[in-house]
Amino acid sequence: MGLKMQKIADSVNIWLCSSDELDPVKTFECGQCFRWNAFGGAYTGVASGRAATVSVSGGGVYIDAPEADMEFWRDYFDLRTDYAAARRSVETCEYMRECAEFGGGIRILRQDGWEALCSFIISQCNNIPRIKGIVEKLCGLFGDPVPYGGQILRAFPSAERVAALEAEDLAPLRAGYRAPYIISAARAVASGELDLEKTALLPAREARACLLKLNGVGDKVANCAVLFGLHRMDAFPIDVWMKRALREHFPPDFDPAQFGEYAGLAQQYIFYRARSEGTS
DNA sequence: GAACAGGCAACTC
DNA sequence: GAGTTGCCTGTT
Questions:
Q1: CB of A73 closer than 8 Å to CB of A85
Q2: CB under 7 Å from any atom of strand B: which residues?
């Protein structure tokens, strides 16, 4: 037990899963989420208005959170999905075996649909530090307070809250041309014009089509929202990193649908590796 | 200062 | 329909 765990009031530090099942560093750093930050070897984050700290000790992943939230977190970390089987299903070639080895322990988080949609609207033409900065400012200005460990963290603001704002209210975010996209997406969600819960039940193709109607949401953002926010694991977002990886390692006529129902996990394995190589 | 970035929409041909 | 360009802002 090398890591001293500080007990945080009103929360318990409990075993979440084996560290073979979940690698927090890879999972939080692979580009799917923007609200987990490393402090002293552990990650603290907020999701759906709940705060937690995740750490690895010995062979286990531990989570420090209110006891009442533990079911939520088990769901959030997708612990009911068999990732060993999912991983095997996308190891379709030697390159994929290497990517899966490199990205082993990545899990696709079951994030809130609105948060994912909004975050990936912000992501366009931005790098991760800037995306995180804009998202933090959005939460700091408009998110509800979440008391945790003697500090006040902030929830991601609801679509209703953002829908009530005007683009100029978002000026402090420095989100640029994305600000009106954020507002109009919030209004679509808040008004029920876009029902994310119903959309999540549709086949990935149709879910994507619903999101594509939003101004400022194209193919890439829609696919990210479907994969990370609606947890449709067969969605396969393609950005510039993925384009390059597909070009270099797959035949020109390759169809990512060949990866099957866990294509989105395949995407994360490929993406995580491509980005690690590209930015090192 | 110019070019560019994990993308999109509007416009061109 | 395939290709080009401007867009906010921040970084190089």
A1: no
A2: A 31-32, 123-128, 177, 214-222, 224, 239-241, 271, 275
Secondary structure of A213-249 as H, E, C letters? CCCCCCHHHHHHHHHHHCCCCCCCCCCHHHHHHHHHH
Distance from CA(A275) to C1'(B6), angstroms, rounded: 10
Sequence-distant (≥ 6) Cβ neighbours of residue A139 within 8 angstroms: A35, A46, A154, A155, A156, A157
* Strand B contact nucleotides, protein CB < 7 Å: 5-10
pLDDT tens digits, one per residue of A93-123: 999 999 999 999 999 999 999 999 999 999 9
The Cα A89–Cα A70 span in angstroms is 29
Residues of A marked as catalytic: 220
Beta bridge partners of A137: none
> CA A150 – C1' C7 distance (Å)?
42
pLDDT in tens, A117-176: 999 999 999 999 999 999 999 999 999 999 999 999 999 999 999 999 999 999 999 999
- Span CA (A239) to C1' (C3), Å: 18
The encoded tokens of residue A61 equal: 């992943």
Tokens at residue A153, please? 């963290």
- Asked if strand C contacts A171 at the CB level, meaning under 7 A, the answer is yes
Nucleotides of C under 7 A from a protein CB: 7-11
CA atoms of A168 and A126, how far apart (whole Å): 20
SS3 content of chain A, % helix, strand, coil (to 5): 50, 15, 35
* Region of residue A174 (left: phi > 0; alpha: psi -120 to 50; beta: else): left
What is the pTM for the complete model shown? Answer: 0.95
